[in-house]
Design brief:
five-stranded parallel β-sheet, Helicase, Ruva Protein, domain 3, alpha/beta, Rossmann fold
Length: 476
Amino acid sequence: MKEKSFASLPVFLVDDEESVLHATAAVLRSAGVTKIEMVSDSRDLLPALEGQPASVVLLDLLMPLVSGTKLLPEIVKLYPELPVIVMTAAQDVDTAVRSMKEGAFDYIVKPVDESRLVASVRHALEVHSLRRQMGVLKHYLLTDCLENRDAFAGIITHSRTMRSLFQYLEAVAVSAEPVLISGETGAGKEMFAQALHKLSGLTGQFVQVNVAGLDDTLFSDTLFGHKKGAFTGADHSRPGLIAQAAGGTLFLDEIGDLSMASQVKLLRLLQEHMYFPLGSDVARPSDARVVCATNCNLAQMMRQNLFRSDLFFRLSVHQIEVPPLRKHKEDIPLLLQHFLDEAAAAIHKPAPEPSNELLTLLANYHFPGNVRELRAMVFNAMALHRGGNVLAMDAFRQAIQKQQKTAADDGAATSSDGLPILIPGRFPTLDEVEEALVREALRRAKGNQGVAATLLGLSRPALNRRLARRALPPTP
C-alpha cells in the first residue's frame, strides 16, 4: 500500500478571483503552510485532484461556470477523507451552514480573518492526517505486511514485537505530527528515529541534537540560531538546527532533561510552526518534522510538575516504546553474530564462532545497557581474542560480573530495601535460600556450572565447593 507522504500533499485553493487566491496563499505561507495549489477555473478542480492528492480544499461557494455548492457533494463523495473548507460572503451564511450539513469541514466568511483562516486550515490538516493514518493502520493490521524493509536494515531483529513496531512506524511516518520515542538507554531509539525519517519521504536532512545539559540560552541558540549582534561574540548571523532541518526531521534526544523555560519555547514551535532567532523580532516558519526521544517516564514527570502537560500531549500524538533487549532475547544470537562480524572486520581478524555456553550465559543476563552493552562486550572480546575458532568467554564473564558488582554496590548505597522478594509462609534459613539460588542458577544455565557461577557472581571453584558441600548434582 504505497502512500504519498502526507507532508507533501498540498492545500488546494479554489477561487475565481486571482487576487483572493494570492492573498490567501500568502497568509498560509507566512503560517508555515508551504505546499499550495491554486485553481482559478472551478472546472479544473476534479481533474487536478485525480492527478495530485490534496490534504485540504479551500473552496469558494460562489463561482461562475461550476459553483462551489455543486462541487462540494462530488468532492465529499469521491474523497471522503479530504476536508473541504468553504468560503462565502457574509450575506450567504445560511448557504455555508447548508454546506456543512452536506459534508463541508468548516466555513469561513469573507472578508477572511487571517487568524481564523490559519486555525481552520491547521485543524483540517491534522484531521486529514489522522484519517489517512487510520486507513493505513487498518491496512497493516489486516495484511500483517511490511513494505519498506530497507528502512529498517540497520535494526537487527527477527522479533515479532519489533516487527509490530516497524508496522506502526510505517503507518505514522508520513504524518506531520511529532513522534515520541521512549525506551531504556542503548535500546536503539536513535535508529528508530532514523528509520522514521527514511520512511517519511521528506527530502530535507535528518538533524540530531542531544538537549541534555543545554541551558535555555544555549538551547535557543542551537535550535533557533541568532542574528549578528544578538549577544556578545555574535559577530555574524548563524542559522539554527531548525533551519538546517527544513523539509526534513529534527531529532531531539534526551527530551526529558529539557528545562522548563526551553519546554515553553519548544511547545510554541510545535503549536505555531514559527520561531524567532535570537536577536530577531521577525518570526520564521518551520516545516521540520519534530521527533523526540527519552529514557525518562515523561508521564510520571508530568504528574510531578517536572514536565509540562501541554508539551507532553503535543509530543505524544504518536508514541513508540522501544523494548529493552531482555524483552526480545530471541534476537541475542542474531545480534551477537552481527557484532562479531562487524568487530572482526574492524580489526581485520576472522570472526570466531560463539559457543553454546556463551549463548546460554547471555540469554540469562538482563543487559541493563541493552543492545549497546552487547555490542561493547563483543568488540572488547574480539580485541582480546587470541585466535582459535571459538570465541573465548572470559571477557563476557568479567563484564557481567563487574556490572553485577556495580549494581550491588549501588543498591547497597542507595536503598535499604534490597531485592524485591516475596516470602509467603515460613521464613527460610540462609542455607535454604542459598541452596535454592544455586539450584535456580543451574536450571537457568541448563546445568552448565561455569554459566551458573557467573550468574551467582561466584568463581567456578567456589560454586564447585558449594555443590560438593551440599551434595547437589551439577544438573537440575
